[in-house]
Amino acid sequence: MIFLDESGLSTKLARRCGRAPKGERCQAAIPQGHWKTTTFIAGLRTTGLDAPMLLDGPMNAEGFRAYVEQVLRPCLKAGDMVVMDNLPAHKVDGVRQTIEQAGAHLLYLPPYSPDPRLREDKPQPDRNGLCQNEGVASRRG
Asked: Nearest Cα to 39, choosing from 78, 77, 2, 66?
């Protein structure tokens, strides 16, 4: 199995505060309006990362199709299962055909639940009403 996911970084993020020696002004360089977005995409196997690519800009249909054809396909083996989320850029024409031509299978993850109780980014209470979040228990108020 190979799980595909991407992560983006924007240079639009500038620190609003920082530290400086007492009595001195805190200074830091910022891009001054030259905002850029960079996207990193890779496949994760049990043996490690596979098919990494850095894209100068946000992920779109054209960039994802190029990734699948030029980077992912040469890394696929017959019988591989490629798993990815439901980003619209992942569902463009040619993606499934390219993966299947390599002898692999494509599986999309189910859509996220609109029910906030089932969202993975929300802490879930256990039987005693405690919330487990990153290993720290707290009482829901």
From this structure: 66
> Which tokens is 7 given?
């992560």
pTM: 0.67
**Could you tell me the two tokens for 44?**
């994760």
Q: What is the DSSP string of 101-134?
A: HTT-EEEEPPPPPS-GGG-TTS-EE-TTSEEEET
Query: Could you give the C-alpha distances from 126 to 113, 115, 118, 134, in angstroms and in order?
Result: 20, 18, 13, 14
- Mark 35-57 as b/e (b = at least 16 C-beta within 10 Å): eeeebebbbeeeeeebbebebee
Give the list of residues 6+ apart from residue 3 with CB closer than 8 angstroms, or none. Answer: 43, 44, 45, 83, 84
Per the prediction, the chain carries an average pLDDT of: 82
**Structure tokens given for 75:** 């890394």
